[in-house]
Write a structure and sequence with these properties.
By secondary structure, the chain is an alpha+beta fold. The protein has a single domain, classed as Deoxyribonuclease I, Chain A (4-Layer Sandwich). α3 packs parallel to α4. The chain is 24% helix and 27% strand. The chain has seven helices and 14 strands. β6 and β7 form a beta hairpin. A six-stranded mixed beta sheet has the order 3-4-2-1-14-13.
Amino acid sequence: MKIATWNVNSVRKRTGNLVSWLERAKPDVVVLQEIKAQEAQFPALEVEAAGYKVAIVGQKGFNGVALLSLHPFDVTARALPGNGEDEQARYVEGRIQTPHGPLTVGGIYLPNGNPIGTEKFSYKLAWMQRLFEHAQSLLARGEMFVLGGDYNVCPTDIDVFSPAAFAGDALCQPESRAALRKLINLGLTDALRAFHPDDVLYTFWDYQAGAWQKDNGLRIDHLLLSPQAADRLTAVGIDKVERGKTEPSDHVPVWCELNVAA
């Protein structure tokens, strides 16, 4: 089963890119971030024509997440637990039955947090604490799960093209990195680093200053696996070619494969 995450940066603008990638890459499950659309504006007909069932948590103009699956699934969450007053569309979760038991896939659009020293950074850290607590509850089930998405955190200096340039950015703050480590230290596996522990790999290139042409990238899109899912991890990848296409997102898909066949 191939599971992917992609911050599409406006699904209406990238519908063609999304559908062509779905048809080429054929992921079983995809979580999308920053769809920037309400549910009625999502290109459901095009996505469903490619074979996918869809769950959408939309928001007008910004944020927004979606879960796409070739397989039937039950929606288990449309918001991250822990703050009933949080109206930002940043989390969706579904449960799929496999021959080896249920697989839960959570789609995450973690707050950016800039500028530091403001409420935006406090919101980011509070959101990460809620994610930590939710991951604890998922782990208590002893089942397979994948938490994929745009985490807006570069885990280490190898994940950012210029640590000095990002020293004051929320994506690289010690508090952001510590919160991500705390989450992973629950026993989760960073799928990409399981296969590429020391490689310089990026998932995001800004539109400004020729970042793509210079390969000035960041690794901020992650797939975190529960121990039960990590035991079945067989492959990972980054579809970097998507960044070089016409009208691309500034992020590219990241995927992993789990052996959950009968």
